[in-house]
Structure formats: C-alpha cells, structure tokens
Prior knowledge:
- The chain has 9 helices and 12 strands.
- The chain has one domain (about 1-275): Metallo-beta-lactamase, Chain A, CATH 3.60.15.
- The strands form 3 sheets. Strands 3-4-5-6-7 form a 5-stranded mixed sheet.
- By secondary structure, the chain is of the alpha/beta class.
- Helix 5 (about 185-195) runs antiparallel to helix 6.
Amino acid sequence: MIRGGGRTVQIGGVSLPQAGTTAAFVTGTGVVLVDTKLPGWGQPLIDKLKEVTDKPVTMIINTHTHMDHVGGNVEFPATVEVVTHENTAMLMKEMRPVSGGPTQPNLFKEHNGRGLPTRTFKDRLTVGSGTDRIDLYYFGRAHTGGDAWVVFPELRVLHAGDAFGGKAVPPLDANNGASGVEYPQTIAKAVATLTDIDTVITGHYQTTLTMTDLKTYGDFTGELVQSVQAAKKAGRTIDDFVKTWTIPDRYLKEGYASMEHLRPMRPDVEVIWNETK
Length: 277
C-alpha cells in the first residue's frame, strides 16, 4: 500500500504469485517497504515507487525470512534500515532450507551482509509517529518462528505476511521455526489485539482481505490441526490422512482452495503430526 498525495496503490505479487506481496508506505521523510519479493525485484520496486514519489526508500521491514520476501533487500542502498523480529534476524543470517520446499541461496553472505536486519524487536516496536506511525507485533510461532505483523494505524491497514498467506492450508516451515499446533493460537492473539483494522494485506493473496477473513483463517487452521491430531490418535498414517482429507464445505464457500500444484500438503501435515504427542 503506497500512501502519497491522498492516493493508495498496492505493489503486489499478482503477476508472479510466488513472490510475496510488497507494501510501501510514504512518510514525511521517505518510503518504508514491507518485504522486497524475490531476488531481482529490488530495482523494479524502486522504479515503481518513482511513479508515486521522489522520496527514497529509508526502511525495509521483512515479515519473515523466506527468499520471496527478502530477496530484493540486497538491491537497496546499504544505508536503508532493515527491521525484523529478532528470530527472523537470526534466520536471515543462515537462510536455512525451507521445510518441504527449496534450498535458499544466502544472498546476504554473497553480498557481505548487505540487506541483513539492522534493527530488531521481541514483542512490539513502534517506528515513526503521528500519521507516519508503524506498529510491529510478534504474537508467536506460525508460518515461521519470527513472523512480524505490520500495522499502519493511520490507514487502519495490516500487513500479515505469510502468517496469513492466503486462503489455503498454511505452509509450515519447521526448519525455520514454524509450529502448526501454535498457529491457531497466534492467529487468535492477532485478532484479539488488532481491533482497529479495516484492511488486511496477505503474503500472497491477490486481493486485500479483512479481519473477519483472518479470524476465519484461524478457525480453518485450528480445525486442520484438530483433524490431524485426531487421525494420529486413531492410529492412522500421515499418507492416509493426506489422501482422504478435504477442505470443509464452509471454507470452500469462503474461497479456500488446494495449493497442491504449488506445494504438497504432506510436509505441513507432518509438522503437526510430529508436534502431537
């Protein structure tokens, strides 16, 4: 979401769904970017911003460690402040492989640390003030172990990153700290705390959503966790569960869809399975 001259524009990942959604916030002194997509996206983002403002990018906020959200960092000037949750800062230094997904190149090591976080927070951080204020929250493990929730109070807008990536089974990157069992609790904390939000920008969905959608996502995630746990307690196997489980009708009506063409569901079920004692 770009704010400038009374206009709002979203820089999203619509043309390339695999690239995370970028939001830009024009302040009195510069532009704050939330996520920078895949490697090679830094300059296109800079070019797009020039259509809206002549102010430079002064800060990047990364919602989590994945390459499709941090890959463009290295293409911005070294003077740009990079802010993340403290767990994400540690994970970005390592750029671990994604559970059930690809190995991530360590661009930051290749660029001598350029684009790595220069400022971190634990539970909450406020940057800026007045109409330029941005609030950052950490509510616990979800998609990774360091998912940041970014709020623009003046606009009543939330960028949820991949903690709410879209209307589908949540990808669980246990290798980077994710928790399926804790995920619904994390969503519930976000819904209970962030009460003054009208618009939710997700990590990958092609339109903005609402806090009602976020609550529904929490319900969906909770029901998935309960279903996996019940299957394990009943003596079933992971493969049997994956073959027979289907998205409940009430979520299909909400637009939930299988993402098997992008990522198999089994690794995510396995994370919940292994967490269930």
